[in-house]
Amino acid sequence: MPQKVALITGGASGMGLAVAKALSSHPSIDWKVHIVDLNTETGKQATSTLRNATFHQANVADYTSLTSRFEATYNSSSRLDFVFANAGILERDNFYAKHDLDGPPPPQPNQSSVDINYKAVINTSYLALHYFRKTKARYDGGEFDPVLPRAGLCIQANSVPYTAGAKPQ
């Protein structure tokens, strides 16, 4: 049975964990699943339920942190075959909050959803392509699946930044 390596951001719960479970139980491919998540407790719990899985704690909004997880994943088997960019959060502030019209301008909005739901997907894509090229030089190919465009189709009324980067495909 051939071995392949997957990296899943936001893989400790929800859709990411569902993909990790599907890969881990694949009948004809021996997947080595690397779950990258901010939450250490749920990440370790998730990997304990999977066959051949490793947890990496990382903040996907931090390029250095994300890069180190890609590097560790690639170095574990000298390959990377599949990346699922699943990490995402809902808006932290109320985008439509009213502020005193006679007072100072409103404070800068919390843009962590932009950092995670948009910038981190770009960085994940960028790193995935790099490691797919390294894998292709040794083996063949690699697949990337960014979940954000599909998740963004479900409009979040109070979260303009969450859906700003998403468009129907």
TrEMBL record:
It holds the Pfam family adh_short. One of its GO terms (molecular function) is oxidoreductase activity, acting on the CH-OH group of donors, NAD or NADP as acceptor. Keywords: Oxidoreductase. Signal peptide: none annotated. One of its GO terms (cellular component) is cytoplasm. Belongs to the short-chain dehydrogenases/reductases (SDR) family. This is NAD(P)-binding protein. It comes from Stemphylium lycopersici.
